[in-house]
Specification:
The complex is a heterodimer. Chain A is an alpha/beta fold. In chain A, 33% of the residues lie in helices and 11% in strands. Among the domains of chain B are: 2-38; 51-199, no CATH class. In chain B, a hairpin with a 2-residue loop joins strand 6 (459-460) and strand 7 (463-464). Classes of the chains: A alpha/beta, B mainly alpha. Chain A: InterPro entries: DUF1552 (IPR011447), TAT_signal (IPR006311).
Chain lengths: 443, 569
């Protein structure tokens, strides 16, 4: 994993001296694999994220009838036509319960994200986004950003049971966190390392050194919790270290405008608006190297989305709405799924709006979009809908539909981890344990 | 002791000797009387010592107490983690997310900068170098030692203190200012685990034995339980002097803390925790359906319930069980809209006594409870019934099975004039549902007298709402009947006692502690179910300070100057 990072290049270039530095943009270069290099000659990083929508889908409106690369998009995926080549659609992959009680809307989601189904939110392993962030999250200001557009702080990202990562629910707060104090504009042209930051970093190192003393004083379970604390402290040290290096200029980047919105609850129109704002901010954060990992919750797994003036939420509809006689499925539920896929398109719009290298930001991302169940009415965890978007900087193949045929969904989790550089050969427990990479996804 | 007394007596004249004998006999009689009437507390059992995260309120209280309430806290707090019904118990198990640490760091920077700002520093420092660029070691030592003791809730060891002074010294060198250096020293304390976590320590004793917490950990348990804030200087002094090792010293501190301004806040915060008010952050109502409900009203609704609780339990020393039948409360004008009770007072709170037929008996009939346990666009007998079981009776209801057949519910949805009872009929007729729903829905049906925002109603979709139901054998047909049934349920006081104790110790109750819990409940009944008496009983009991040290753990370090010598009973 020894690669040429921005830090090593710049350290060599300016020696970290406290002088004003101005770096010129260079023309694009390609490395031997034809991969784009950024203006500074640095390889464009690959980013990973998840995008969750709740309450599954209507199979006949979502699953393409053909597999392979020659398939027609069914109704709910139709709006995603511009991204047909940038997406892999994975249907028919199952969370295998092995007798574990299926907690509605939880077991499927966390089972897919940890490879181990649990009957509650007490996950038995970190979620895959955390495992990936441990590999690629260390060189940016944020190890990961968790964002929710539906007003709930859930993220379904867990370091361990009892340690969920909370989501930002307000675009204004999200903006402040990324682009407020502590943000260094990569294109400001001059750079002056802050002595105060340097001092603060050394102070934090001293806090870290106190670790051994405390570890001797507490029991095993508490050691684990304190370890989480010290890991986070080290992360802040790393962030400060980054602030001491001149940032690599980023082509086409400008700091976005601060939004006023604090987020606006769960009415679908408001959620779509909030989501667009947040997706735009996230795209800028990824572009300017503030983070390489994210989790975006479009709607909660027990979807709280609703229409104005309606007494029932999306989730309640999945249980109480009778199938429409003509259509053969729950009509109102279906409308929420359709809206969710429009939200997904908005998200891909935001990523692909940013030019990067010889393509767009989306080309250098791997986004894993998934729901918590397939048929919400019965909370089925078989055939949970999954989409992979973006090419991970050329490492991922897209533009096809694959039917999983009841394979464990952990194959998806295993594959994306491997693509993102996690050294893992086998992942999941019991029936979910697998070493079968989805080769179709690899280039 | 006996030897010392007899050697003293040997040197006394005979009349004095007789006096002493009588005096001792009198004391022994008094002691026996005390033993007979009040002290059959079961032997301490203890649980593991805990490492608890400060809650947001505790963090805020600590900063306000130590640096003044005007000290701004700029970071944000992550959503609390709830376990066994309480955030207070969750603090003993919750991890800490990178987001949380990031925000603690932001707060630490802001607080340290504010405290040592030119404008404010004089209030905290009575020393300093003549030349600001020079480091004043004695001054730094004094400030960091005193502040550190309050922040860490124990004296700093010599090593720790010199570490912080050293940090400040080198920071002073780098930044060219004593105050900037000291600011960094303070910053490092504010982000230290010893501040953010309450790390309990035990006095020396045999491994695996039931032992007592050390004096500073005792002080912590007392003050967070009774004031929801860290120990003040006086309580830390009491810990240092060894006076918390005896029951008199503890009792004195308990009385003092319960007389303090923070005590009512601690009671309120316990009930806010028990009532799960932190979930209001994620509760929204459809403005088209409930135009009178908004975030301001949601805040006032919580305050209404907490004010009512405080007034009844503390001001009036009322019976806890009467909280479920109480018709006295306080309203604002905008709450009055939801309660359909005009409030003439334009600003602030007005005391209100509801008429017996107003359907407003008990805190379970308050907007806060009703709105929190509803959907955004409608009420929910299931959510409300579940909440009553869980919150007030400490009963667990299992999750629904995933493979539920909803056909029967769907059949009702499109019918005219349907009520929740019709919609949920399947819950009581389908065996796979009935097992759990028959314990939730029937008590929830009585609360169908209120819509999703908590307004009273008699009809739903044009049909008269049937309020009848049953709480564990106690039939009812009105909201007042439900209030009585809830008040008289044997689990009601038991649940409160259990919640109160687990909140105080930060963990679930252990199997062996059930006799202690029985004892608490007996005492609660003897005290006419007065909550302050229950809290005092817990705080002064031996069980409260008892911990079991894990067998394989080496002895914990006992903080310096700690005169604690108890090593178990």
């Amino acid at each position: 994993m020894k690669s040429l990072t921005r830090r090593t290049i710049l350290r060599g270039a300016v020696g970290g001296a406290a002088v004003g530095v101005s770096l010129p943009f260079l023309d694009y270069m390609l490395d031997n694999n034809g991969q784009a290099l950024a203006a500074t000659g640095q390889r464009i990083p690959t980013r990973f994220g998840t995008w969750i929508w709740g309450c599954g889908f209507i199979p006949e409106k979502w699953i393409p009838s053909a597999t392979g690369s020659n398939f027609a998009l069914p109704a709910d995926l139709e709006p995603l036509a511009p991204y047909k080549d940038k997406m892999a659609i994975l249907s028919g992959f199952d969370v295998e319960l092995d007798g574990v009680a299926n907690k509605p809307h939880i077991t499927g989601c966390l089972g897919m994200r940890t490879g181990i189904p649990v009957p509650d939110t007490n996950v038995k392993a970190p979620t895959l986004d955390v495992l990936i962030s441990q590999i690629i999250g260390g060189e940016t200001r944020f190890r990961s950003l968790e964002i929710s557009s539906c007003g709930l702080e859930n993220s379904y990202s867990y370091f361990s049971a009892g340690s969920p990562n909370p989501s930002e629910t307000s675009p204004a707060e999200l903006y402040k966190r990324i682009f407020g104090a502590g943000f260094v504009d990569p294109n400001s042209g001059t750079f002056e390392p802050d002595v105060e930051v340097m001092t603060r970093k050394s102070v934090l190192s001293a806090v870290s050194e106190d670790r051994q003393r405390l570890m001797r004083e507490v029991g095993a379970a508490d050691k684990h919790r304190l370890d989480e604390y010290f890991t986070s402290i080290r992360q802040i040290e790393q962030q400060l270290e980054l602030q001491l290096q001149p940032p690599a200029p980023v082509e086409n980047f400008s700091r976005p405008d601060a939004p006023d919105s604090q987020g606006a609850g769960s009415e679908i129109g408001d959620v779509l608006k909030t989501h667009r704002l947040m997706a735009g901010l996230l795209a800028r954060a990824l572009q300017s190297n503030q983070t390489r990992v994210f989790n975006m919750l479009f709607s909660d797994t027990t979807s709280n989305l609703r229409l104005p003036g309606e007494t029932t939420t999306h989730h309640t509809l999945t249980h109480e709405e009778p199938d429409d006689r003509q259509l053969g499925y729950q009509k109102q539920h279906s409308q929420f799924v359709t809206q969710s896929m429009l939200g997904w398109r908005d998200f891909l719009d935001a990523l692909s709006a940013i030019p990067e290298g010889d393509g767009t930001l989306l080309d250098n991302c791997l986004v894993l979009a998934h729901s918590d169940c397939s048929i919400a009415k019965s909370h089925a965890v078989e055939g949970i809908p999954v989409m992979i978007a973006g090419n991970a900087g050329g490492k991922v193949r897209t533009g096809f539909h694959m039917a999983g045929g009841g394979d464990p969904i952990s194959r998806v989790g295993l594959t994306v981890q491997q693509v993102m550089g996690v050294p893992v050969e086998r992942w999941g427990h019991l029936s979910m344990e697998t070493n079968r990479t989805i080769n179709e996804l690899l280039t | 002791m006996a030897n010392r007394v007899s050697s003293l007596m040997a040197n006394m004249p005979i009349p004095a000797r007789q006096f002493v004998v009588f005096a001792i006999m009198g004391l022994m009689l008094a002691f026996a009387a005390v033993m007979l009437f009040s002290s059959d507390e079961p032997d301490p059992e203890g649980g593991p010592p805990t490492v608890r995260r400060l809650t947001e309120e505790q963090y805020r209280n600590a900063i306000a107490d130590i640096f003044g309430p005007e000290t701004e806290i700029t970071g944000r707090f992550e959503r609390p983690f709830r376990s066994h019904g309480l955030v207070a118990v969750g603090t003993g198990a919750a991890g800490i997310s990178p987001f949380a640490v990031e925000q603690y760091e932001v707060s630490a920077r802001g607080i340290a900068a504010s405290v040592l700002s030119k404008k404010r520093r004089a209030a905290f420092l009575d020393c300093g170098p003549k030349n600001e660029t020079e480091f004043d070691a004695a001054c730094a030592q004094k400030f960091l030692g005193e502040t550190g003791r309050l922040l860490f809730r124990r004296p700093l060891s010599q090593d720790e203190l010199s570490g912080f002074v050293g940090l400040s010294r080198s920071a002073t060198g780098q930044l060219g200012s004593f105050y900037a250096g000291l600011e960094l020293g303070l910053y490092s304390m504010l982000i230290a685990p010893d501040f953010l976590f309450r790390i309990e320590r035990v006095a020396a004793g045999n491994d695996g034995a039931i032992v007592e917490l050390d004096a500073y950990s005792k002080a912590e348990r007392l003050s967070f339980f009774l004031t929801n804030a860290p120990p003040d200087a006086e309580l830390l002094d009491a810990a240092a002097s060894g006076s918390l090792d005896g029951s008199w010293g503890v009792s004195r501190q308990v009385s003092r803390l319960m007389d303090s301004e923070r005590y009512p806040e601690a009671v309120r915060s316990f009930f806010a925790d028990m009532l799960e008010f932190d979930d209001f952050g994620e509760t929204s109502k459809d403005p088209q359906i409930y135009p009178a409900f908004n975030s301001v009203v949601a805040g006032e609704a919580q305050e209404q319930t907490l004010k009512t609780i405080e007034d009844h339990l503390l001001e009036n020393r009322g019976d806890y069980r009467d909280l479920f039948t109480l018709r006295d409360t306080f309203l604002t004008r905008s709450l009055g809209v939801i309660y359909k009770t005009p409030i003439p007072k334009r600003e602030g709170w007005q005391a209100v006594r509801f008429q017996p037929d107003a359907n407003r008996a008990g805190i379970q009939s308050h907007v806060a409870f009703l709105a929190l346990h509803s959907h955004p666009g409608r009420s929910s007998p299931t959510l409300r019934g579940y909440a009553m079981r869980k919150i007030f009776l400490c009963q667990e209801v299992p999750d629904p099975p995933a493979s539920v057949n909803f056909t029967a519910i769907e059949e009702h949805v499109d019918k005219a004039n349907v009520t929740a009872r019709d919609r949920l009929d399947i819950h009581s007729t389908e065996p796979s549902c009935a097992g759990c729903h028959k314990v939730m829905d029937p008590i929830g049906f009585a609360l169908e007298a209120y819509d999703g925002a908590g307004s009273h109603r008699t009809h739903e979709n044009g049909s008269l709402i049937d309020l009848s139901g049953d709480l564990d054998g106690q039939a009812f047909a009105s909201t007042n009947d439900l209030a009585e049934a809830l008040r008289n349920h044997p689990e009601t006081p038991r649940c409160l006692a259990q919640r109160m104790y687990t909140s105080a110790v930060g963990r679930d109750i252990t199997w062996k502690e059930r006799y202690y819990l029985d004892w608490l409940i007996e005492g609660f009944a003897d005290d006419d179910y007065q909550v302050p008496s229950l809290m005092e009983r817990i705080a002064t009991s031996d069980n409260f300070f008892a911990v079991v040290r894990p067998m394989d753990q080496p002895a914990r370090r006992v903080a310096k100057n700690n005169a604690a010598n108890g090593d178990g009973q």
